[in-house]
Amino acid sequence: RSAVELAQEAIDRIETLEPKLHSFLAVMGEQALAQAKAVDEKIAAGEEIGPLTGIPIAIKDNMCTPGVPTTCASKILQNFIPPYESTVSQKLKDAGAVIVGKTNLDEFAMGSSTESSAYQLTANPWDLSRVPGGSSGGSAAAVAGSECPVSLGSDTGGSIRLPASFCGIVGLKPTYGLVSRYGLVAYASSLDQIGPFGRTVEDAAIVLEAIAGYDPKDSTSLNVKIPHYADLLKPNLKSKGRLRIGIITETFGTGLDPEVDEAVKKAISHLQDLGAEIQTISCPNFRYGLPAYYIIAPSEASANLARYDGVKYGFRAEQGDNLLSMYEKTRAQGFGPEVKRRIMIGTYALSAGYYDAYYLKAQKVRTLIKQDFEKAFASVDILVSPTAPTTAFKAGEKTKDPISMYLSDLMTIPVNLAGLPGLSIPCGFDRQGLPIGLQLIGDVLREDVLLQVAHAYE
Ligand code: GLN
């Protein structure tokens, strides 16, 4: 089929399903068809066809795409049309992919359920009364609901892996620095990474290859050679040496849903049947990951969000009598409650007199967690854990209790603090028919091993 036909099919599916799912903040119908037409013309002119040629893709609405608003699901960026393009969306277009729309998220990617979006609630396609996970919930629901085959999310503390787990699809957070953050609206810059969602590991591998690579516009971008991830996939784990997998002991036990526990253990024994050698590994500082993250991420966010003052972007409150009151009113009206909570925590943690007690301490914990992982990877090739302690919860269930919401990220956050790659792959269902996710964690830049193990497993 032609790129135009594929784009039209995706647009039709989106039109049919959106009244139930609400995954998209903007559907780029006309632009997508025009882009698809250009792709078809290139094919007709004999240009080389890559694996993403004509493939419809959705992008989380915190990545800048010119000609269409980038809102971060915040009122403060309402109608903000970026004058420049994110490196990832440019790379996707260069690879021939067709961008069909911008997906819903928690405001500024702060949340675990996509419920903090200022605009709409996204439903989990497996049970519409439940959340898709967050913060990249729109991108995950769009793929799980077959609105489009692949999408992009961002992961600061689990925001690709958690929704992948809740929606029963594959989600990958790459090594920090593998994918350019240029044009990604910053939340916590030392943790943010962009990554793909797909229904299969191969789909995720193809998208990763297209978006990865050195970018001089991102000072934290890694200058490394990008492997052909999809070509490295094979159906088994047989290799010269046995693949060693470590089970992180601390991610099992209290707080873990017994059905998740059972499914993940079954998945691990399946990996053993496939030829892997299984060991248990202790990461004793893992449990301090969540509290350290909730100091570091809000601290960086409080600095990153200082730029939304009503002057440079989108929304400006009316009736400010002077500059200061215009700033105050704009920020009071433009930010939602979760974002305000983060700004206040971050400003407090960074303030003189508290900096050593909170921010510096959290950075020390971050180093200890990194060391736990370094020790672990001296004896295993990959680590496994559940992606999340539970399956998808009901909409509204955790909105009144931020701590219980934060606990959803218990197992994903240490991976961001250490800058490592992490992947979530479906590993069964609970008794209510809700998907369960298995998390695979790799050493720095070992996306190839992660994808190989995940592919052999699926
Ligand atoms: N739920 C975490 C938070 O609210 C992670 C978000 C993310 O990865 N973007 O900060």
Give a description of the structure.
- This protein has 14 helices and eleven strands.
- With 458 residues, it is an alpha/beta fold.
- The mean pLDDT is 96.
- The protein has a single domain, classed as Amidase signature (AS) domain (Amidase signature (AS) enzymes, Alpha-Beta Complex).
- It is 38% helix and 14% strand.
- The longest helix is centred in the last third of the chain and has 24 residues.
- The chain has an eleven-stranded mixed beta sheet with strand order 1-3-2-4-6-5-10-11-9-7-8, with helices on both faces.
- The site of glutamine (GLN) has 13 residues, from loops.
| Ligand inventory | glutamine
User: How much helical structure, as a percent, in the residues?
Assistant: 25-40%
Mean pLDDT reading? 96
Question: In the residues, how many domains can be counted?
Answer: 1
N-to-C span = 27 Å
Rg over CA atoms: 21 Å
- Name of the CATH class: Alpha Beta
CATH architectural grouping = Alpha-Beta Complex
